[in-house]
Structure formats: structure tokens, C-alpha cells
Amino acid sequence: MKDALAIHRWLLAHQVHHEIVRLPRALTCAGELPEIMHADAAHCLEVTVFEVDTRVGLDPVAVLSSVATPPRPAMVGTLLGARKVSPAPAFIVNSATRYAAGLVCPLLLPDDLALLIDERLHRELPGDTLVHTPTGERRTALSLRARDLLTLAGGKRLDLAARGRSSLSHGHRASHSLPR
């Protein structure tokens, strides 16, 4: 499993200013970040992992969004043209991300895991805004600039606020075949 130290070392190697924050109490999921860190929910980010049923089979897909606007499975399914989308069980989240379920950091995700990023993060978070994410550990969180996180996370941008099909914008992690 990945942890705060692995994230810290990776960010240092990339010369990214960040802070690993020691939390006053344990997190059980990213949704608790606003309360524990006394931060705006729009500035607290979470990774939700879904099982997406495509014509080929079931694939895990990670979606990065703010805690204030979590992704809806139906919207993700519509935008991907999937038969069915449902939240992935904890064991799938753990094996697909190499983080503890509910505490997934959007950094250091495996290359074979499709990462979709809610377009609203790019539109609504000024680059210097401080954002917070889990680190895979219950007692720590990661704080860094939105611009740095969104650049390093890569992934495909997806407009989860849209009413119909949306085009995807590709980041540098676009190696996975989803969406089909």
C-alpha cells in the first residue's frame, strides 16, 4: 500500500512544494477532510473508484472530484457509454489503486488505472488555491496547490456537470483504453 512517505518523497523528487498534514483525529474517508481540516469542501478532493461494465468486461475507473461535488455513477456511465457503473467494493479499490479504500490519493496511481478528472476542478479552482487530499493513511492529509496536483495527476478531463455526452480532454496519463 502507498502512504504519505511515498507521496512526500515523490513530490520532493519532482520539486513540488507541499505539506503532509498531521490530522487531529483519524479519517475514515475523504469526505471527512473538510470537517477535520476546517477547509472548504470544494478545496478537499477525493478519488472515487467505480466498476465500469463495458462491452469487453468490468474495469475499475478512478474519478477525481471535490468532496463538495462527488461523481454520480449514472453520470459517469452516461459519459463513458458504459452499460453499468457502480461504486467499486473496497477490495477492488485497494488492489486497483494500491491505497486504502476511502483514502485514495490522486498521485502515484498505477498507469493501467484510468483516471478521470472532473472538469470543474480546472475551471473553478484558481491555480494557487491550496487543495487537500488523503494520503492513504488515516492520520495524514496532503496539501498542495491545485495547479500542481492537477498537472501531476494527469488523467482525462470529464465534464461531470454536463447533461449529455461530453468530449474528454487528455492529460499525460491517457494510456488506458477507457473510455471506449
Automatic annotation (TrEMBL):
A single MF term (Gene Ontology): aminoacyl-tRNA deacylase activity
Lineage: Bacteria, Bacillati, Actinomycetota, Actinomycetes, Streptosporangiales
Entry-linked InterPro entries: YbaK/aa-tRNA-synt-asso_dom_sf (IPR036754), YbaK/aa-tRNA-synth-assoc-dom (IPR007214)
SUPFAM superfamilies documented for this protein: YbaK/ProRS associated domain
Residues annotated as domain YbaK/aminoacyl-tRNA synthetase-associated: 36-151
Name of protein: YbaK/aminoacyl-tRNA synthetase-associated domain-containing protein
